[in-house]
Amino acid sequence: MRVYPVIMCGGIGTRLWPLSRKSRPKQFVNLVGDTSLFQETVARLIGLNRFERLVVITGQTMQTWVSRQLALNNASADILLEPAGRDSAAAVALAAIHIHTLDPYGVIVLVASDHFIPDAAHFRAEIDKAVAGAANGSIVTLGIKPTAASDAYGYIQPGETQAETPVRKAITFREKPDVETAARYISEGYLWNSGNFIARANALMDQLNIHAPDVIEPVQAGYDTRSNLGNGTLIGDAFLGAKKTPIDKAVMEKTQAKSVLPTDLDWSDLGAWDAVHAVNTKDNTGNSFQGRVILHEATNCAARGPDDKLIVLAGVDGLNVVADDDVILVTPLAQSNALKNVTDRLAQEKRGELDIPSASATVGERTQRLLEWWETAALPLWFSNGFDHTTGLWRESLHHTGHPTLKPVRGRVPGRQTYVFAQAGRDQWAGPWNTVLDRALTSMAEAARPYNGLIPPLLDARGEALQDSFNLYDQTFQLLALAHAPSSVKMAQPIPVQTARPLQLVAQTVAKPTFGGMEDAGAFAFTHDNATAYDRALGLLTTIEQRIFGKAANAAPRLSEMDETCPHRSNPVMHLFEAALAWIETSRQQGRDDRPWMALADEIATLCEDRLMNGPRGHISELYDADWNALPITDENRIETGHQFEWAWLLMKWQKLSTTNPAESSVQNGWHDHAKRLFAVGSCGTEPRALSMVNYLDGNYERCVDKGRFWCQLEWLKAALVLYEAADERERAFYLSHAELALDVTEAFLNTPVRGLWYDKRKPDGTFVDEDVPASTLYHITSALTQLRETTARHRDI
Questions:
Q1: In the 8-state DSSP scheme, what is residue 545?
Q2: Are the C-beta atoms of 766 and 691 separated by less than 8 Å?
Q3: E-strand spans in 461-514?
Q4: Model confidence over 445-459: pLDDT tens digits?
Q5: Contacts of residue 440, Cβ cutoff 8 Å, sequence gap at least 6
Q6: pTM for this prediction
Q7: Are 88 and 8 in contact (CB under 8 A)?
Q8: What DSSP string runs through 136-187?
Q9: What is the arithmetic mean of pLDDT over 756-765?
């Protein structure tokens, strides 16, 4: 019989707070020795006889922990991700279903991830006995011979011995009793319930179907709708319909197939601090300690803390002291189980101390944490579920459960998402970025083919236009994506065509050009011949110039030459500026001519300085008339804080790229002053409690009542970082404090039940709106992370 060990890795060990927290559960902490309980569990199981493959059942929030610690053991596993915890019965059902699909007669060895078993060889010998006992269809539990009456464990009453094995029938399972009842159980020969189960897959399936159909049927439905999520498998939402109950109640108390293997295995579930103290090495007065600890006339105490804190215990007995960055716990060891009441109270009060504090980490450390989230959660999720691998088209959004929605796709999304995975390739992401880029660039070209290379504002699931219109905003993200695409990715070749269908301009975006004669002027469409991204981008830029400005090919754009019948928007021009700056960098890296992009960027920067910045503090409005005079501020035309930050960030990039003398100080350039003024305007949107940056300001730069959008927080972070780098000593602390505040808010927006998603809107009371997650925000996240990476690499002291 082949053996399939399954690690059930859920829970956070609240009775081991504050060391065990939501983002750092106890199974991943070094409670005993130099390795975690999870690592010890993996090592024990891989050495089992007839070992076939390892399975880990966990939640999405723990996927990264599991992946990293498996790597530390040089081990691999099938990682099954529950959409939410439904107690142990659902986890056991999921294990049974998964292994039954692999090997119906395979023997499942179900163990917890956080148990302490110091003698691995003894454990494996006992599992061999249990596997033999499970051959007849029994569900075997390891029953630990008690060492003392304890109210921390469940109890099993053993019955008669089964033929030719030490496994015995189990008469009954008992819930955790009081200490007096526990003492009676022990006197009657009861065993501790270890929570380890051994059974054939088909036998376990049979018992679940008989006794717990309300568990196994929803779990089966969820398993049937599973999807890939990075290196794991995300179980479908039907799983959530499973009854929330432990396996003991669901099956073991009812089934006639229950058996128990009595064992004297040295075992502890380390459920509380007294249990941790019991298994750790002690001095000659009964004290255990870890970290910088001084004990003076102290006996039978436990103390642990970080290396930067000194803990002193003097003249005390039986105390437990645990120091963390933001919490100091002091409690009698004998009352360790009562800590659950404390953590319940913290949860009711919504105290942040239930999780690891961000304030204790440096900007550099927090950057690494965010990059790890991006690489191991966000990119895999959006690669798996945010991209249609059949059509090569991006999804508009994901449901808050992580599953795709079926909404039409806005024209900006293909370029933004393609930029994200191109940037992932540049950052050497280990995932299949090149595969998705090739498909995405091809599908984007196909969508633009009928329109001379211009992508429509709304696409259906087949990539066909749902609106016969044109928006400069969408085209800028095509240019941005191409600027970041690695040279190894094949491009479509732009060639002149005579039959392209013109798109009408979106009203109140840019001026309406004259389409007559456009085809003869050399407009472009795309075929699938090999070409460089540079060639394709120049073709697209030429088409944009002709469509928007009515110019001949290769002429430098003049943004003032627009029809006077329609007001201008600054936002599309801002993203055209961003694309131009990206192409200046890429052209220089590739040794190509950057003059077309320098000319474009120079004109936009000049327009910004001469016309766009207005008002007492120099803000940039959203709408302008035909002469680029700002239109009055109204409820429909408010000042957007996020755009002030984006312009500030772009002007600082432009200053760097346009400076001819690399040694020139940043403060000697006027763009720095403009960026500082724009940041000052945007900062007026800071919510007093720093819950978020609000989106809109009125004409007096007062906050408008509105929800804070996530993208706005990310642009706040980018601008603060780039201005921190350019600031003198007097101003650095100011911009760093803004960056740290923006990081706090960013981490709050990312704290979602499904790791790799985010909230889009935050209410004034600090709560979030539970709605679909827009794909387009990943562009802002990626850009902010790139800036964080660059800033912390240059300034390792933050």
A1: I
A2: yes
A3: 469-470, 494-496, 504-505
A4: 888 878 778 888 898
A5: 387, 392, 394, 414, 417, 418, 421
A6: 0.59
A7: yes
A8: GS-EEEEEEPPSS--SSS-EEEEEEEPTTSS-EEEEEEE----HHHHHHHHH
A9: 90
